[in-house]
Amino acid sequence: MSIDDLPEVLTVPEVAEYLRQSRNSAYALVASGAIRSVRVGTRAIRVPKSALIEFLENGDAAQSDDASHSATPLRKEGSGHAQE
User: Fold this and answer.
1) Contact, 47 vs 9, CB < 8 A?
2) Using CA atoms, how far apart are residues 77 and 75, in angstroms rounded to an integer?
3) What is the mean pLDDT for each group of 10 consecutive residues in the chain (84 residues)?
């Protein structure tokens, strides 16, 4: 699945599926601020596609001053392996 095929706003389970992570891992990324999200009503959490793209390009380095908590940035789909 290409990032272009995703809807403009995703649920956390959709983010988890795209990242090939567990739902719990995706919720943890959202809770930590590594992936920006918005709350809709009192319970629903949505992730703008732009926030997922930012995470894939930058990891959570933009959200954290402590490099030890930064995720490794990933390249866009189809561009090879994770950066080292």
Assistant:
1) yes
2) 6
3) 93 98 98 96 96 90 46 50 48
Residues 6 or more apart whose CB falls under 8 angstroms from that of 60 comprise: 29, 32, 33, 34, 35, 69, 70, 71
DSSP character at residue 72: P
Contacts by 27-36, CB closer than 8 A, 24 or more apart: 29/55, 29/60, 29/71, 32/60, 32/63, 32/69, 33/60, 33/63, 33/64, 34/59, 34/60, 34/63, 34/64, 34/71, 35/60
Q: Where are the domains of the chain?
A: 3-58
User: What end-to-end distance do the CA atoms of the chain give, in Å?
Assistant: 24
